[in-house]
Amino acid sequence: MSVEQSEAARASYNRMSRVYGLLSNSSEKKFVEVAIRQVLEPRDGEVILEPGFGAGQVLLALARMVGPTGRVCGIDVSDGMVAAARRRLAGSGVEDRVEIRRGDASSMPYADATFDAVFMSFTLELFPDDEIPVVLSECRRVLEPGGRICVASMSARGKNGLMMRSYVWAHRRFPHFVDCRPIFARKTLEDAGFEVLDEKLLSMWGLPVEIVLGRPK
Q: Looking at beta carbons, which pairs linking 3-9 to residues 24 or more positions away fall under 8 Å?
């Protein structure tokens, strides 16, 4: 992501950080729970990374699932989201299992082969088309051999009906509010060198949502 794009995204999500948790809970919670509990299935003792953690709801859920010997790391471009996530984690009893920082997922400050899993919910589609392969390359780099990646995203699969056309129009017209754009999540992961292990195609307000689990080939 260019410096200009990164700063624009940072400013936009800083503005939304106070209400982002409420917005995402109302629309994304069901899909994130399916992705975590039925697809990713975190295990005791695992080390998991969440790029684009937003207000921190998933960080909290993952920290509880990996248990006292596990660890969760998160990176987000927005100072406001970092602050919101820290407020959410404070007093949760699992904050010592979570490490969060501000940064760009296209250039992550983690060593190679650090994580057992990477989880991204309604995040990958926020990056420009030419940046998505860069982000996924970084995910491959930081994954342990045999590690896995789970992506939940708005999907471009399915019929181009009225709801899809209306959503795409709203995204183009108001990208800072309707921020997720539909992508082909499975194909995107395959093109980036991941083998698909599992996938689910769900529906949000009549719009398709892909949940895809993969591992590096």
A: 5/128, 5/131, 6/77, 6/104, 9/77, 9/78, 9/126
